[in-house]
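Escalated from tier 1: S-adenosylmethionine holo job.
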Amino acid sequence: MDELIKTEDGSNTLFSKKYKQPFHDLKTGAIKESLTKHVIPAFEFHKQKKHLRILDICFGIGYNTLSTLYYILKNNLNISIEIFSPEFDFTLIKSLKDFDYPEEFYEIKPIIEQLSNTLEYHNQNISITICIGDAREYIKNLENIDVVYQDAFSAEVNKELWTVQYFTDIYNLCNNKAIVTTYAVSTNIRLSMFEAGFEIYEIRPVKKKQTLAFKTKQNIEAKYIDMELKKQRNTEAKAIYD
Ligand SMILES: C[S@@+](CC[C@H](N)C(=O)[O-])C[C@H]1O[C@@H](n2cnc3c(N)ncnc32)[C@H](O)[C@@H]1O
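Tier 2 regenerated the structure:
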């Protein structure tokens, strides 16, 4: 069983025995990290859209999916969403009905229970599907995605979800207006995304910087990272390949 850890904002996460890493940045906090690094940048960017198709890589304890529901309810958004989320660990998903989530998720407790029991939840405005299996296979069947929450463990232990080949599949399933959100900021990971075709931007919603990626150049409040220039200046840095 993975160890339960209380993070800086009071919300609980787990420390993965298999990957030897916590599921969240302990200093930022689990729910705060999910909201500031994934949900808020994605929903701010897609303010005008009334329907969003979201890929949550990977479900884990589910903070990114659950914070998305919390954010919609809290802001009373008139929007419908579809969330698709692959996850290896069936035992983890089965255990989530008993996980000690923060009080922000109390209202969605019945949804958590249903996801944990049946791996899906559907009502008029919300459709969530968790798929037990390898994300690399799962993503090959998706299309027209608006948002990708790229939240795998780090590349040292979860390499298959940070390579050029992986991001090429992510690029292909994204529509032209899609946004990819990730906590990762290292040059080699940004190069993997860039070599797959993405334009790279940086924001700093909390103390730490983070990366946003898009299929085309954007006129947004974020720092554009010129990856061609990075490549010229840092010839040591290399994209990650399978
Ligand atoms: C950092 S955690 C995800 C954190 C998640 N956003 C949350 O809020 O808990 C990474 C998750 O990805 C899963 N995972 C890693 N590689 C995978 C793969 N190739 N396919 C499916 N799931 C994978 C792990 O089992 C783990 O639950």
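The pocket of S-adenosylmethionine is lined by residues 23, 34, 58, 60-64, 86-89, 134-136, 151-153, 158, 160-161 (CB under 6 Å).
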